[in-house]
Specification:
Elements (H helix, E strand, L loop, with lengths): L1 H14 L1 H29 L11 E4 L3 E4 L5 E6 L1 H8 L7 E13 L8 E7 L3 H4 L4 E4 L4 H5 L4 E5 H8 L8 E4 L2 E9 L13 E4 L4 H4 L8 E2 L2 E5 L6 H16 L6 E3 L5 E2 H5 L10 H33 L1 H9 L4 H38 L9 H4 L2 H28 L2 H6 L3
Parallel strand pairs: 5-10, 7-9
Antiparallel strand pairs: 1-12, 1-14, 2-3, 2-13, 3-11, 4-5, 4-8, 4-12, 6-9, 7-10, 8-9
Length: 420
């Protein structure tokens, strides 16, 4: 029976090519727009290399506030002392890492270069939290970090730019007039992986100048942190433990106090636009984004309702004749739904492909970082395609369900006459 329904649907598409094309393209464009919105959110929140544990991570980025009794405030990041006292002492997380970013030109011994690269100064837990793909060598060790040994991990593109090959382990590079030895090479990281992205990664203990930039009783500084929980159920426990460590640290100071505003935030909080760790209310986000998605959903639904209603009007006599020969209301509804589902499915498939083509073309104004490289790990998630399929089903019910119900309820005599 279903096979017969789809044969009839194909015949209808051939008979009404212009209307069919309008319906399919209208559906495709609307689904493409929705998919682009969803894909942008996915890029900001889904797990992909090297940030494969985003669902278990908490962040403190520019979410630190240091104040004193004179009501002077410093909002931004924290010092290395604050990191060590408040974060490295946490027992609940699986790992805690701190970092700060700087840009410097990279050079080779005896060869001055001027191109600026992103340098991430970090610690050894950074390599436990993020899953980098090493093409050669390994990350700097705990001993390197503790002793401020000038070891560096470089990206594949940097290695090729400087030496023309990725076989550069053990070779020197110059960062801010300091000689480093390359200890590892990793695959390039997309800027969409914003907390792990860099061109070069080195121990932060090697930059004494930046470590010395502190304010407010040595509490404010350049550092951000990320926390990898063993489970998402540990988030509240980690926040409570951090509050205890913060209170203990504050008790050692004379005048200044440090706080982390609304506590470490999740990846979802970051994705919906929380800035400086001041959260965006979920209801406000849903009202704004949900309204947009609902609008994009209703446009093709209303379009298809009109087209479906027009096609049903032409087939009232056929439906009346089928009812006269014993076709039930359910049979007629299933037929119309199946026929319309083919149109929706074709539009959905085209819309999915279109979204994957449009996103790279439009990323300059859709993504905050315009040079973000998009890869399959970001875009191809099973959940997103399942959601798209469910969306097609919903669209089919909205656009075909109402006309199908109306025609199935019409008396046989009226249907045979073609009356409304």
């Amino acid at each position: 029976m279903l096979k017969q329904y789809f044969k009839q649907a194909l015949n209808m598409l051939r008979e009404n090519r212009l209307i069919s094309m309008v319906s399919i393209l209208g559906t495709a464009l609307s689904i493409a727009m929705i998919m682009i919105v969803v894909l942008v959110f996915q890029i900001q929140s889904a797990n992909f290399l090297p940030e494969t544990h985003r669902d278990r991570m908490l962040y403190v980025e520019e979410g630190t506030e240091v104040s004193d009794s004179n009501n002077s405030r410093n909002n931004g990041s924290m010092s290395v002392e604050a990191v060590r006292e408040c974060f490295y002492t946490l027992k609940t997380p699986e790992a805690v890492s701190a970092w700060f970013n700087f840009t410097y030109p990279l050079s080779l011994p005896g060869k001055q270069m001027y191109k600026i690269y992103s340098i991430k100064y970090t610690d050894t837990d950074f390599w436990k939290i993020y899953d980098f793909s090493f093409l050669g060598g390994k990350p700097f060790s705990e001993a390197d970090f503790t002793s401020a040994i000038t070891q560096a991990v470089v990206s594949e593109s940097v290695a090729r730019k400087l030496y023309g090959t990725v076989e550069v382990t053990g070779k020197p590079i110059i960062i801010d007039r300091i000689a480093y030895t390359i200890c590892g090479v990793v695959k390039d990281v997309s800027r969409a992986a914003d907390t792990s992205f860099a061109d070069v990664w080195v121990p932060y203990t090697t930059n004494a100048f930046i470590l010395g930039i502190t304010q407010m009783e040595n509490m404010a500084g350049p550092f951000s942190t990320c926390i990898l929980a063993r489970s998402r159920s540990d988030f509240d426990t980690i926040r409570k433990e951090l509050a205890q460590q913060t209170a203990r640290y504050n008790a050692t100071k004379q005048d200044c106090r440090i706080s982390f505003l609304e506590n470490p935030i999740t990846r979802f909080d970051r994705a919906i636009g929380s800035v400086g760790q001041r959260k965006v209310a979920l209801k406000d986000y849903l009202l704004e984004t949900g309204g947009l998605l609902l609008f994009l959903l209703l446009v093709p639904a209303l379009n298809l309702i009109g087209v479906t209603q027009s096609s049903v009007q032409k087939r009232r006599a056929e439906m009346g004749l089928r009812k006269a020969f014993g076709a039930t209301r359910g049979t007629l509804i299933r037929q119309l739904l199946c026929e319309n589902f083919l149109v929706t499915l074709l539009g959905g498939a085209i819309g999915l492909i279109l979204s994957l083509l449009l996103l790279p073309a439009c990323k300059n104004f859709l993504l905050q970082k315009t040079d973000t490289a998009l890869n399959s790990d970001m875009l191809f998630q099973p959940g997103i395609f399942l959601s798209a399929l469910l969306f097609c089903l919903l669209l089919n019910l909205l656009s075909a369900g109402i006309p199908a119900l109306r025609v199935s309820r019409q008396p046989i005599t009226n249907a045979l006459k073609g009356d409304e």
